[in-house]
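Q: Got a minute? One more chain.
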Amino acid sequence: NSDKLLGNYLVDKSGMTLYTFKNDTLDQSKCTGDCTKEWSPLLNEADMALGLGLTGSLGAIERSDGQIQTTYNNQPL
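A: Always. Here it is, folded:
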């Protein structure tokens, strides 16, 4: 998405803003257990694409619970 004041930002298929977690490292999510109740990981979905104006790359990692989580520039979302 794009906003005149905020610039470009990532959203999920419902239009909800996506975030990174400062404790995550590249290709590894530190948000597990209760953390995922407040900050749900973006689990890998088909039909993912970057919107106009966004550069970088989408990818995926396997979480410690075996689920596949989407990444942006190797940072878990």
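A: Strands lie at 2-3, 7-8, 58-62, 68-72, 75-76.
Q: Perfect, thanks.
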